[in-house]
Design brief:
Strand content: under 5%
Largest sheet: none
Shape: elongated
Number of strands: 0
Order of helices and strands: HHHHHH
Radius of gyration: 37 Å
Structural class: mainly alpha
Helix content: over 70%
Number of helices: 6
């Protein structure tokens, strides 16, 4: 907008100078001579036009650099978001009371609530080591706390648990059939 104002201003000054030139030409064409001063004026006008064009090009370059910087900052934010989610998931194994569960739920809702992060959270909750059964009540509380706000988290977790349960059930039936065939 600034450039267009400057270029409009220079066009207005050119139009005024042309009008003055026409007025002078109408008043006395005899007085109009080609002098070094007029040539220098015209040369300066052309130089100003070229400078304005160069300034416009520089502004376009600055805008391009700014958009590139924005892309880099979004990349940095993505990397930092990933790092935050990784630390959040590692922090899940240290939850040992209700207050910590509430803090973790609040942190997730306020700063890490994206679709991909919700899927990562479900995978982390599903992938609890079988030796750490003491974490299950706290993880269940976390899921229950998040369920009114993020209904997809408990649904996805339930789907994974159901698939695993059905897998073990089928596996057990196959073992029983093999034992009957052997007997």
């Amino acid at each position: 907008a600034v450039v267009s104002t400057q270029s409009t201003g220079s066009k207005k000054s050119e139009a005024k100078s042309e009008d003055k030139g026409e007025e002078k030409g109408e008043e006395g064409k005899d007085d109009e001579e080609i002098t070094e001063e007029k040539i220098e004026e015209e040369f300066n006008k052309l130089a100003l036009k070229e400078e304005d064009e160069e300034e416009e090009e520089e502004e376009e370059i600055v805008v391009t650099q700014t958009s590139t910087q924005a892309n880099e900052s979004s990349l940095v934010m993505t990397v930092s978001n990933k790092a935050l989610m990784d630390t959040f998931i590692s922090r899940l194994s240290t939850i040992s009371n209700r207050d910590l569960v509430n803090e973790v739920a609040q942190e997730f809702c306020l700063s890490l609530n994206t679709k991909t992060n919700r899927k990562k959270l479900v995978r982390a909750l599903y992938g609890v080591p079988r030796s750490r059964l003491d974490l299950l009540p706290f993880h269940a509380r976390l899921v229950r706390t998040l369920s009114p706000i993020l209904p997809d988290v408990p649904i996805d977790l339930f789907t994974l648990l159901k698939k695993e349960f059905l897998y073990h059930l089928r596996k057990k039936k196959k073992k029983k059939k093999k034992k009957k065939k052997k007997s």
